[in-house]
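At this stage, I needed to go through a protein sequence along with its fold in token form, as given directly below:
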Amino acid sequence: MFPLSQPQSVVDDIGSIDSSGVLTVSSTESTWTSLAGPDGRLPDIVYTLKRYDRDDRLVDTLVRDAPFTDADLDASSRDSDSEQRPVLQIVTRTFQNMPRGSRSYPRLPPLPPLPRGIVYPYDDRGLDDEDDVEHNDDETHSQTMIIHSEHLIHALEAVVEYDPDLVMGIPLRIPAPYRSLYHHRRELADYRDKQPSTHSPEQVSTTARHVDVLLGFLERHLGKELRREENLHRLDQPMVTFDLFWLLLKPGSVVYAKRYGVWTAYVVSGVMMPRSQTDGYSITAWLLESDGSRLQRLDEVHRVSRWRGEQPVARLPVIPAALWPEDWEAQAGRSMRDKQTDEGRLYWELLRRPTYMQYEGMLLKNWPVEEESSQAGFMKGRVICDGAGFDRFGVEDHRSLTRGWTAPPPPPPPPLPPHMMLLRRGTDRLPQNAPRCGCQACGRGGRPSSSDLRGPFHGFEDLDPVTDRPPERNDSFFFLVCSKAIPGFVLGTRRWATLHVAKLNPVQPDKKAFDQLVIDEDIKRTVKALVGQFTSSRFDRNRVEPWGGDFVRNKGEGRILLLHGQPGVGKTCTAECMAELTNRPLLSLTSGDLGLSTTTTTTSSEQPVESRLNYFLGLGQRYGALVLLDEADVYLERRRPCDVSRNGLVALFLRALEYYRGVLILTTNRVRSFDRAFLSRIHVALHYGDLTDDHRRLIWSNACDGLERSSGGRVRVSEAVRSAHLLLAGANGREIRNALQTAVALAEDDYASSHPSSWDGGDEKRDDEDEVVVVSLRHLSPVVDLARAFGEFASTLE
């Protein structure tokens, strides 16, 4: 055995010696050399016993020169299990602070961007060895709290709803500045005073004492600074300091950040603290967004740059919801939370089925684009919101169908810091159950009801909007963190775009438009009878559904209408009025949308007509739309033996018309050149004759009434102009409309010249709301003279 007369200095360096002559070594290093006798010689055989706790961590090492017996091992095990430990242990480590330029450790290259949709289940937050914890480059020391108290750990289990950075275990290690503990200090205080009824009086007392130990430490550590910071938060204009900004970023809390330039609600999941004196915060937060079929969490990283002193919260790129500066006027009299919740509820409803809507506002994104973040400008018109359809018909399909457009190579992504990974889907496990104490007493106390077990995020993930229901218990929070951007098909441009749901409104069809349509009464009556077959009450709420089997069952049972006549006699206007009367979308196509090529060549990026035609007819079928092919004669001309390309074009159109399951409207002014095979496939052919003077009078009167109605009374047409339809003798409907629009432009220019400060473009708002723009003969006459002169010139060229 090791002699008990060993000098005290040696004992202090090594550890301690018990009454049996066993040397207890406090260090994990082997110190068997300390067993040397007075003559300096070591025993020939040295026996070492290493004791580990329940988490396989080394507690201490026992060394002696005789074998350990079974009794020694049993006693050692009991001593290890019964060993008293502190409630908290604060471990401080120091580092050599080397200048940045002289560091010798290798720098890893930036991580490559992850493929879309791929998630790597990587998590290094649960470190096995406290010595492996990283420290900031500019730090000379770091602190880690080790919580040994099981009572305190069970208390944390009972109050922490969601904190991916807090990996529960016994003992529990939390690095400074102990963010998780400060975020839950109030919940811990409440739990201390309101513990579960299953706890014994002794357990209640011990838990309360250990919670007080922790709260006392937190108070001594940052209590004064926290109170000063919270006083800044309570100002009329809340302020915040950079060093304590993390106080407002509790995991599970809601923050607002801009997405596509629009403030959007996110849930905080993690915060990467600054690693140097120049770094800012990297805040990982998620929202709920559809991937085309199911609602998933989408992670995004938001960066907040460093600032000095105190900063207004309203100026930050990430604003905690608790300190959001309410703008009641911009938010339409609602709180930001209510506004975001309403928009999220609309987003969910729009995901359930394609929906026909009116949009007025900025497009968040347009397709195809060179950069995902590009804005597409202002748009006012009809759209179809279709998140699921975008995956089928969206960016990839439309890029291949966009004539003459070649996708440029994407710019290289900016390099990411070695510690950062950007993932599309949330990688932490979202807790489904409410937090509860994990002690044995609570485990024996019976399992709570299933409703009591549900946490705030229960049922948030992997939902099918078509078949699933939103979580009932916390649906307002669910809608709050839903995306506010949805893909939609813009009917006016025949392109896909990302739409802001706040700019969407139900379509208000103009049912009177058909009554004001100036065409032959027989044609009008026939069209109205046909329209009755396409109208259904289910479209009253802007729902769109594909043309069903009850309408078209087999080949040749679609509806193909041919409208033929001279330009400007109302053919296109008839199709538009039919769409208004049926409240169905109108998909208006021209030869520019379809092209003329029947094959794909290596020297041209133009896609064949068949691909484009199938693409748009597929959309028309999906949306139950009226498909209008304007000036269709270019595709329907009769075949010639010597023109193989023309024959192929006609053949593919014949096949498409044969199998199309919907309503297709063709317009032309060259019906005599049609291939005879088309004539047998047309269900109704309507001929539009030339306009009479009575027609022109009605068109002119309707145009003047419509102008005054659409302007809200800001524009008035004089009686002299209303009676001037005879000036437009020989004009067609389109020329009449153009003449009135040009006259209005001249009248507005006159008004702006005489009222520079009251016009919409002036610096001051108009004071006299009764003043209006008056369209008079002096505005219309020059337009008519110019049109007549151009017509006479054009006739000389024939």
